[in-house]
User: Fold this.
Amino acid sequence: MEMDVLNRLPGVKAVVLMRLHASGVFVVEAFAGAIGKQVALILSDPAACALVDASVPRGQGLTAQAWRSGKINISASYKQDARYAAWHALAAPLGIRSAMALPVLDPQEHPVAVLGFYGAYPNQFGCSWMSPFAHGIQRRWSQIWQSCHEAPAVLLTPEVVQRYRTRLFDDGLVMHMQPVVDLRSGKVVKVEALARLQLDKDRLIYPDEFIPLLGEVERARLFQLGLEQLLQHLVHWHRKGLMIGGSVNLHPSTFQNPDTPAVVAEALSRHGIGPRYLSLELLESGSLDDRAQQQAFDRIIKTGVSIEMDDLGSGFSSLQRLSTLPFATTKIDRSLVSGMHKDPLKTFSFLAALIALGQDLHRPVVLEGLEKPSMIEVASVFGAAYGQGYALARPMPAEAISDWVASFSLSPAPRPIR
Assistant:
């Protein structure tokens, strides 16, 4: 599925995923694109496969260099690049004009695979704006690899699964709220409603454990119940003079459900909440084609609510959505912020580019994952409009929001740079 997302990017003729065999040969594990199969066949030929050995011609290609260095390698002109000399004759009929090799890294930043991109245009991967998003792909795929190799989750028995599902729709759903703060004014502008399953008096289950158990209809039901709780709390806060908004996550299957706009409009009307106080955070929807996404988007925004993009920076699919859909706000993925102290210069470069992109498109940016005061300062300096994270507030029961807002204060933010 991820390969198909990359394949749909403009100008990408092929994407090839390769792993290094113990023999020193790079083996093609997956491919996508109009010429993906032809490229894979060439690289699978024992006489033309890429090698890791730097002392031989077939060890000079970008795949091998990316593996050895752990860094992204780019070729502005495939036909003139001497590193591809061993493949020039074989690749000539395919119309490849540029290339990029992107190493997938494990948590210790050791290469575990290489993604090869083949482009239709010269210097397609070398322009300045491409770098942050190439690194975004690298982070995304490194996270995918890590999640595939983590220790298996605790296996739930059918009885436990049934208990979770039954309890979730029998008054077990609890929405905890995490504030979102205007970094310039220091005011709380809204809360994000986050689903929790109150299994019993002493046990709270987080969504990564129960969401995968739900089917399409159940996810739509979960959205309705979460929306209902959020609106009830908004009514309560507004009556007390706390005029903040709220957001709730929207799964792609619920996003494209034709009934969703009517559900949202009816709930707003019944609670007497203006649509400007509600926003829906659209989760990753790479499985939808552009036309389906636009149609679903149009149906929902007619209700007057705003739609936020939840994952800017997690990969090229988020860039694709940002360029085609009129999101009101963009959220920069917390995985980018997490590297701030480990590799600050690279992280600052990514954040600055993504925040500037949001500003240039006139879409306010929310920076997630602000876990330390220093991260709040960085977000402010780079011009992020809003912040969210543990350094500001952890998710909390809705009943605690009023008192927390009354006691919250944020020091004046540094002047942003541009």
In short: The chain is about 40% helix and 20% strand. The radius of gyration is 24 Å. Residues 96 and 120 are 6 Å apart (CA to CA).
